[in-house]
Amino acid sequence: MTHDAEPASVLVHHDGHLGHLVLNRPRALNALTAEMVQSIGRALTEWATDDAVHVVLITGSGERGLCAGGDIVGIHRDAEAGGTQTASFWAAEYPVNALIAGYPKPIVALMDGIVFGGGVGLSAHAAVRLVTERSTIGMPETAIGFVPDVGGTLLLSRAPGELGTHLALTADTMTGPDAIALGFADRFLRSARIPELVAGLATQELQEVLAAVTEPAPPAPLLQQRHWINACYAVDTVEAILGRLDASTEAGAVAAAASIRSNSPTAVKVTLASLRRARLLPSLESVLEQEFRVSQHSLDRPDFREGIRARVIDKDQAPRWNPATLAEVSDAEVEAHFADLGERELGLALAEAAS
């Protein structure tokens, strides 16, 4: 009895002058593994100096989404066992995010369907970021006791006004047009035109293809709410933000306050601190360094494991956060998430400075 070989988790195609990477775990919504990140890094490194490749395209297999983020079930399993695989995964993933951002050739990322967490890291730093009418994009980490990473705090901190702060603390999502308005994406196309995009990039010039397949984006729903979002989030503590949301008569503010209160108190406070610090950092590499520290320290706390258990594994949607309230999360505890890791530092900013 023979068994078919397991399909590759990343399909690597070279067609005409197009290098095409397809995330290929459709049943897992193309959730990222260390093997996938390594495959992407290898292909991009090879194509960077291959004169036959003029442009790179990143897509996801299936029609549900580009990528739902990191394989958080695997992260939970590793954390429960006291393993080191998650730290190694991030140490491989974050440099690939930086590689995409600084790539010498145009990378086109198709942010179709669901694009969460690690999927944002693979796409929103690319040169050309395309969304469709099916796009749902977000950094919903605070809902699982974690903090936005993969350069997400850079993007969120530089979104207009306080829209990024709102999304990060509530774990809310964006439409495709929202993503364009907030600086996570560039252009809009109808999903029916995806085959035309892929075929065109193999033989035609990039700008010619984009002009043919993209169109003006519909209105961005989030922009209609920025008046109260900017007013409520323009303070530097979560408690003050909640006070302003509670005092608002906007229906969206009531929902936002409820979302923030349902998320991990520690993650919410550390996320706000991460965003405020990221605003002052000079580069993606320096932000990734900070996120790596925060991610490592988050692994040592109980909320990340508990959030994955409640939201993804048992799906009881009743996480038991520890500490359970914002008042119990001290400034010292928040500060501890930014502590230097010593020998475990990522070293990206150092590499950037040396290059």
Automatic annotation (TrEMBL):
Superkingdom of the source species: Bacteria
Database matches in Gene3D superfamilies: 2-enoyl-CoA Hydratase, Chain A, domain 1
GO molecular function, one term: 3-hydroxyisobutyryl-CoA hydrolase activity
CDD domains: crotonase-like
Keyword Hydrolase tagged: yes
Single GO biological process annotation from the record: L-valine catabolic process
Protein keywords: Hydrolase, Isomerase
Sequence ranges assigned to domain Enoyl-CoA hydratase/isomerase in this UniProt record: 19-338
Cited PANTHER family: 3-HYDROXYISOBUTYRYL-COA HYDROLASE, MITOCHONDRIAL, 3-HYDROXYISOBUTYRYL-COA HYDROLASE-RELATED
The protein, known as: 3-hydroxyisobutyryl-CoA hydrolase
Species, as recorded: Cryobacterium frigoriphilum
